[in-house]
Amino acid sequence: MPRMSPDEERTRQLRQHKQRQRDALRERILEVSRGIVRSEGLASLSMRKLADAIDYSPAALYLHFRSRGEIARALREEGNAQLRAAFAPHATLADPAARLRAMGRAYVEFSMAEPEMYRLMFMEPADAAGAADTAMLSVFADAFAALKAVAPLACAQALWANLHGIVALELTGATPPATPVAALVELSLDAWLAAGSGLAAGSGD
């Protein structure tokens, strides 16, 4: 490979420097956006508010994100990655029942720790924040398949809906105070696992 001339090397270094600046500004935009969403919710996020917070012009922001929706989608992808990371220690548990319990608890614990991020991921219209990540469905479905459920994916979707319902009731303040979220989760998981024999192929013969 031929050596670069001094001018070519300076040009290469200048490009790298500009790219690092662009990357740093993009991360700064996401960092501030994250803080706004976590403390005030997605409705409070705006390009003008972001520009004021990071002391840049709105035009500079548009070089990285064309709209508030693009920022919301980037944050949602981050949230999905965090949720997958929360599942990771449990996804390989050999006992499928223990796996379902651990992942169900991890899902709800994530939602309670990051309520506004959870709202963004699962309680905003898809056109506002992008499509939901369904990677966790396959992990739930694998556990149901190991329990010999007839329709593992449908069971995974139903369990997800069950857990999401508990979380949504809590986040909207509709859960009765006398019934803690953790208790509702355990009751739901108990019911799903107790019904395991009824979900198994041939169990009704």
Features:
single chain; 205 residues; mainly alpha; Arc Repressor Mutant, subunit A; Tetracycline Repressor, domain 2; 0% strand
Q: For this structure, what is the CATH class of the largest domain?
A: Mainly Alpha
Low-confidence stretches: none
CATH homology-level superfamily of the largest domain: Tetracycline Repressor, domain 2
Which sequence of SSEs, written as H and E, runs from N to C?
Answer: HHHHHHHHHHH
CATH architecture of the largest domain: Orthogonal Bundle
Number of domains: 2
DSSP strand count: 0
Biggest sheet details: none
Class from helix and strand fractions: mainly alpha
Q: Layout of helices and strands, plus pairs?
A:
Layout: H1 6-40, H2 47-54, H3 58-62, H4 68-87, H5 96-113, H6 115-122, H7 126-129, H8 135-146, H9 152-171, H10 181-194, H11 196-199
Helix pairs in contact: 1-4, 1-6, 4-6, 5-6, 5-8, 5-9, 5-10, 8-9, 9-10
Structure explained in plain terms:
This protein has 11 helices and no strands. The mean pLDDT is 84. The chain has 2 domains: 1-66, Orthogonal Bundle (Arc Repressor Mutant, subunit A); 76-205, Tetracycline Repressor, domain 2. The longest helix is centred in the first third of the chain and has 35 residues, at 6-40. The protein is mainly α. Helix 1 (6-40) crosses helix 4. The protein is elongated and about 70 Å long. The protein has helices spanning 6-40, 47-54, 58-62, 68-87, 96-113, 115-122, 126-129, 135-146, 152-171, 181-194, 196-199.
